[in-house]
Amino acid sequence: MNAAEISQRMSGEAHRIAEYLLPQGKRAGKEWKAGNTSGEPGGSLSVCITGAKAGTWKDFASGEGGDLIDLWMACRGQTMPEAMKDIKAFMGIRDDFPKPPEKTYRRPEKPACQRPRQRVHEWLTGRGLTVDTLAAFKIGEQLQHGKAYAVFPFIDDAGELLNVKYRNPDDKRDMRQEKEAAPCLFGWHLIDPKARAVTITEGEIDAMTLHQMRIPALSVNQGAGNHQWLEHDWEKLERFSDITICFDHDAAGDKGAFEVIQRLGIERCRRVRLGAKDANQWLQDGAEAVDFQQAIDEARGLDPEELRSADDFTPAVEALFYPPVGIDADPFLYLDKPLDWFQFRAGEYTCWTGINGHGKSLMLDQVLLGLMRQGQRVTVFSGELTSPRHLKRIMKQATGLDRPTREYIRAVGAWLRERLWLFDLFGVAKLDRLLEVFAYAARRYNVGHFVIDSLMMIDVPQDGPGAITKQNEAVQKIVAFKRKFNCHVHVVAHPRKQRDETVPVGKMDVAGAGGIVNGADNLFSIWRAQKDEAPANPNDPDAVAAWEQQQADIDAKLILKKQREGAVQDYTLALWFDKPSMQYRTTPRRYPLRFVDFSIQDQEVPQ
C-alpha cells in the first residue's frame, strides 16, 4: 500500500490513532486536543477524528499540520519509510511480499569536473536555467578530447552518488552514463523528505526547469521508453500520494507516460500537459512559474472512461437550460400543430400502447409525419402490413385526402424520398438483423427515428418458458442501440386483455416483461371512443339526437403515461378523428390537414 492508501485507511481510525500518539490529549467534540506533537496536555494541537476531514491535524502554535502519517512522523521523529513501516505494523497491514534478490550496482567515483564556466554554462543558461539551479543540482563541466560535457550527478536522498550522466551540448547523441550504475531518478537530494507530491519528467533539464519554477521534480535516467528506475526507486516513491507525469508531448512521451501511470497506480498519478513539447521549451517560450503551477493543478488522471466529474457536464447542462442560438431543438410532438408539452429527445425510447383496434399504429404514423415535417428522418418496420399498404395509409394522412391524385401521390413520394425508409419485410423480423439494418440507416442516411411495430413481430417469444427473459434481453438491445447512435426508438407494445374498452390502457397493462415499460423513457397510451356508425333508429328523434351528441364528443385520447425527462406527466390530449384522411385532430372541426403541400400549377411531377 502506498502512502495515499494508508492515509485513507488511517482516517477511518482517526480517534484510535490520535489517542495512541497523543495519550495525554482529550476529546473535545469532533477533535482530539493536545499541547504539541510531544504529547503534552494542552489545546493548541487539534486532530479531527470524525466527519469528512477525519485524520487532518494542525498545531496552531508551530504551524505544523497534515494527515495522520505526518502526525506519526512528527510525534515519533521518524522518516517517511520508518513511519510507513510502523504504521503498517500498528494497523495490521501485511503487504510485504517475497521479493527477488536485490540487484547490486557499482557506486561511481566522484567525477573529475568543474563548475560550469564555458560551453556547458553557456548551453544551460541559454536554455533559461539560472546559476542557482545549476548549483542546486550540482551540475559540472568536464573537458575530454577537446569536447565539453555537462555532468549530471544522480544523488539519492541520503546524499550518496548513485550514477552520473555525461552529455555533449553540441551533439545529443554523444551521451553516456556510468557503467553498471543504478538506474535511479535524478534529483532526489532536492526533494523534501516530507513531500507527498512530486513530478517526474522525461529529462534532467526538464526536472531542473520545474525545480526552478518551485515545483518538486525528478527525472528518469534514460528517456520515456526505459523504466528500470521503477524497480530501483519503487519504495522511495511509495510515500507520494500525488505523482504528476510530465513527459514530452509526442508519441513516445504519451506511450511512456501511460505505461508509467499504469505501473505506479492510476489512482495517484496524473498526466501534465504544457504549452510546449517539454518543460524547458515552455520556459524558453516565456512561460512563468504561475503557468507551470496552473498546468500541474490542471493535470488529469487516467480515470476510467466511465468515471467523470460532474463539472465535465456543466456546459451540456447549461445548454439544456439555454440552448445555443442556431442549434436545432429536439422536435416537438406534432399532430396538426406543435404540442410543446412533449419533445422527442435523442437517445430515448418511447413505448406506444393501446387496446387492439384503437389506432396505435395510425397515431404513430401521423406523429412520424409531424417529425418528418420538422426535418427528421425516419426508418419504420411494420411487420403487420406490406410496404405498399402501409404507404397507402401514410399517403392519405400526408395529403389529407381519401383518394389523392396520381400527381399528388408522386409528389408525396418525392417528399418522402429523403425522409422515410422502410424495413421491407412482411412478417416476423429477427431483432439482430433489424438493428443491424437500422445501424446502417443511422450511419448512411443520418436517420434519427426508428420504429418497431410491433414487439409481436420480432423473433422474441411472447409466452412460454424463458419468454420474459428473452423480452427483457430484447429491450436491453434496443436501449443499447438508441444510446449508441443517439437516436430515438419507437416501439409499439400490445396490452394484456382488458375487461372492456371504456378505460385507456395504463403502464401496468402492457403485456410481457416489465422491462418493456421500465426501459422506456416515455410511454404513450392511445384510446379511441367506440361510436356507432349511424343512429339506432333514424326515424326516432331522440335516437338521432343521442347519436349526434355521441358524434360531437371526442373521438380519441393520446395519454402521456411516462416521461423520464421533462416537466409534464400524466397528460391527456383530447382528439377528434377525420376518417377519410385517417388523421387525428386537436379541434372538433375535424377538417383535414396537408402535411405535404401540392399544386399542379407550380410543381413538376415526373410522368
**Spans with pLDDT under 50 lasting ≥5 residues?**
none
The rounded distance between the terminal residues' Cα atoms is 80 Å
Strand content: 15-25%
Task: Decide which structural class fits the backbone.
Answer: alpha/beta
What's the overall average pLDDT, rounded? 91
Shape: elongated
Largest sheet: 9 strands, mixed
Rg measurement, Å: 38 Å
Strands of the biggest beta sheet: in what spatial order? 18-17-19-20-16-21-22-23-24
Count of separate DSSP helical elements: 19
Helical content class: 25-40%
Count all strands and give the number. Answer: 24
Short synopsis of the structure:
This protein is α/β, with parallel strands linked by helices and 607 residues long.
Account of the 3D structure:
By secondary structure, this protein is α/β, with parallel strands linked by helices. The protein is 32% helix and 20% strand. The chain is built from 19 helices and 24 strands. The strands form five sheets. Strands 18-17-19-20-16-21-22-23-24 form a nine-stranded mixed sheet, with helices on both faces. Strands 1-2-3-4-5 form a five-stranded antiparallel sheet, covered by helices on one side. A hairpin with a 4-residue loop joins β23 and β24 (583-585). The relative contact order is 0.07. The model has no long low-confidence stretch (mean pLDDT 91).
